[in-house]
Specification:
The protein is mainly α. It folds into three domains: 105 residues, no CATH class; 251 residues, no CATH class; 93 residues. Helix content is 78%, strand content 0%.
Length: 495
């Protein structure tokens, strides 16, 4: 029982350490900039106590402040003790170095700036490492797609063809479709979606599931009812019904997320520009508030213009910066943008806002932006790779199934033509295959969205495109635009 509790405690500490280390670069940045503005350790911890953007660090700060206030201990003593009590070794090392620099009378600001610089170097290396892990997941997913296609073709080639004819029979009365192979790709896609969830995170929150279901569930239910009732089975339109239902269900979340994503990207691009403008204006002698007003009145921030201009107008009306930040938080969910503006407002309200502090903040914001931008650029090629593979494997699977009937007919020279029952079974099985491939294409779009944009909601647009491409492939094969049977017949030498 004690061993079980120890394991649970160790697991909790490990998870907490990961959360702290994820927030650590921003914590070090806040400590550095507030210290540059003249604040001491206790005052800095009081500021961080109200910082909801860093929940794990905030929790650690509250613990330290409680020990100082309730036990009446010296802040330096509590920080030394916190080094041993925190679950994160990196946080403990930072606090130990911070206290040591204070006690030795050294240059605390230089120490903090060096730690801030090294923390962002570690963050950049960590992001590159995460891209490599994502690359491994993508390659595993693509390999899975190819293997499943190869297995399906192999099953048909060795005689387990779901449309093969029993010797001496005129129809395909006896066949055993490999339904497990059809179910396996969507199941594996769901598994990979779950795995990808742990490797890539977005600065933008997901679209709420309730809203997705509200707009998408009716279309899904209608398509399921039509397929199960066989209302349009005589037209062999079940695959199109499933495809149209998935496209209709994905349309609203795709448009909604794209709007949010564009706004947040514009905000992410504009934030370093605003901070740099504030710094340069501050060098000319303008007050901090006037610098913000001037920088936010620019008109080249695209969709972020309205929010930036609102910040400027509220400052002119004398609205407190905390209220301005709350309004910004309700409009933008990008962590990088929010933490940059929060630090800016904290610096100015704390009586800081000198040129050196603002210059350091602008540099930090530019580093954060470059790290995120480089990560997005490294992930972009996976969009094209995913599209090519899903399109090729889906088209090849459908083409292979459609060619089974022609190949069977050519392998039975001198036999009677296949009856209408066999043709109907062929088309019915092709419909089932088509529905499976369309569902797989839709799930693949969500996977690509999670990999490249960090959010499943970002994959709805890719899902729509892949489903449409797959439906076009189904239509092309049903119209026999490409037919392997005809090609083989023309290439067969006369006897």
């Amino acid at each position: 029982m004690l061993s079980l509790k120890k394991l649970e405690h160790a697991d909790h500490d490990k998870k907490q350490a990961k959360k702290i280390e994820k927030e650590l670069p921003y914590f070090i940045t806040i400590v550095t900039l507030l210290a540059t503005s003249g604040l001491g350790p206790y005052s800095i911890l009081q500021k961080i106590k109200d910082l909801n953007l860093l929940p794990a660090i905030r929790q650690e700060s509250i613990k330290i402040i409680k020990r100082i206030d309730m036990l009446g201990l010296d802040p330096i003593t509590v920080l030394i003790q916190a080094k041993e009590k925190t679950s994160s070794r990196l946080l403990g090392d930072f606090l130990a170095g911070y206290v040591s620099a204070i006690q030795s009378g050294g240059n605390v600001i230089n120490y903090l700036k060096s730690k801030m610089s090294s923390s962002f170097e570690m963050l950049e290396a960590k992001e590159k490492g995460s891209v490599e892990k994502i690359s491994g997941i993508v390659h595993a997913y693509l390999t899975m797609q190819i293997v499943i296609l190869a297995v399906f073709i192999l099953v048909a080639a060795v005689g387990s063809n779901p449309l093969s004819i029993t010797p001496g029979a005129s129809t395909a009365a006896n066949y055993n479709p490999p339904y497990m192979i059809l179910v396996f790709p969507p199941i594996m896609s769901l598994v990979f979606l779950k795995v990808a969830q742990k490797f890539n995170y977005s600065n933008i929150s997901e679209v709420q599931v309730k809203k997705i279901l509200r707009f998408g569930l009716p279309a899904i239910l209608i398509s399921i009812i039509l397929v199960l009732s066989n209302a349009l089975s005589s037209f062999h339109a079940n695959a199109y019904i499933v495809g149209i239902g998935l496209v209709a269900a994905s349309l609203w979340p795709a448009l909604h997320f794209q709007k949010i994503y564009t706004k947040n990207l514009d905000a992410e691009t504009a934030t370093p520009q605003i901070l740099r403008d504030i710094t340069e204006a501050r060098k000319s002698g303008l007050g901090p508030e006037k610098c913000i007003i001037r920088a936010c009145k620019r008109k080249d921030y695209r969709t972020f213009n309205v929010i930036a201009n609102t910040i400027s107008n509220k400052l002119e009306w004398g609205i407190p910066m905390n209220n301005i930040f709350d309004s910004l938080y309700s409009e933008i969910k990008n962590f990088q943008v929010l933490v940059s503006f929060r630090i800016l407002f904290e610096i100015i309200t704390s009586g800081g806002g000198n040129v050196n502090t603002l210059d350091s903040l602008a540099d930090t914001s530019e580093k954060i932006y470059d790290i995120e931008k480089n990560k997005r650029e490294m992930l972009k090629p996976y969009i094209m790779v995913g599209f090519m593979l899903i399109t090729i494997t889906g088209f090849t699977t459908l083409l292979t199934i459609d060619s089974f009937a022609s190949i069977n007919q050519q392998s039975r020279p001198g036999s009677e033509p296949l009856g209408s029952g066999y043709v109907e079974q062929t088309r019915s099985f092709f419909d089932i295959i088509s529905m499976s491939v369309i569902v797989q294409a839709w799930l693949a779009g969500l996977f690509i969205g999670k990999i490249t944009k960090g959010a499943f909601s970002g994959g709805f647009l890719f899902s729509i495109i892949l489903v449409i491409i797959t439906m076009v492939s189904v239509d092309m094969i049903q119209l026999h635009v490409i037919n392997i049977g005809s090609i083989m017949k023309n290439s067969t030498p006369p006897i």
